[in-house]
Design goal:
There is one protein chain. 46% of the residues lie in helices and 23% in strands. By secondary structure, it is of the alpha+beta class. The longest helix is centred in the N-terminal third of the chain and has 15 residues. 23% of the residues are buried.
Length: 142
């Protein structure tokens, strides 16, 4: 009975979704290759997103979002249907906390799992979406 319980517990642990915690850019590359088939588009997206937010380029960030986009504005869930609406509410979505998270984030310390790539403590998530698997921001959490 105890042996059976151990086997069930081990099977449950092995079946749990795994996350990737990398320490070097090479490890991130390997992890993203394993998860999504290739790492370079994710690296390019991360670098472009980091630059766009640092420059406060609202239009560039808005172009990186998967629409319709669910945002939390003034403690209310709001569905943004397009770039124009995102830009209008940019400062309420891309808060100082979000900006700080991406400013501190390095490529080598990205977190990734089957759902996508996370910046900070979940302030931003991005992943391949749609038929073309275009990489887009899927969530921003303040």
């Amino acid at each position: 009975m105890l042996k059976q319980l151990r086997l069930i517990t081990m099977a449950a642990v092995l079946a749990m979704p795994t996350a990737v915690y990398a320490q070097t850019a090479t490890e991130v590359n390997t992890s993203l290759d394993a998860l999504f088939g290739q790492h370079q588009p994710y690296r390019s997206f991360f670098d472009a997103l980091k630059a766009a937010i640092a420059a406060d380029n609202k239009a560039a960030v808005a172009a990186m979002v998967d629409y319709p986009f669910q945002a939390r504005i003034n403690d209310k869930s709001v569905k943004l249907r397009d770039k124009a609406h995102f830009i209008a509410d940019y400062d309420k979505i891309v808060t100082q906390k979000v900006k700080s998270a991406i400013e501190k984030q390095t490529y080598a310390t990205l977190f990734a799992n089957w759902q996508g790539v996370m910046i900070g403590d979940g302030e931003i998530w991005f992943s391949g979406v749609g038929d073309g698997n275009a990489i887009k921001i899927t969530a921003i959490n303040d």
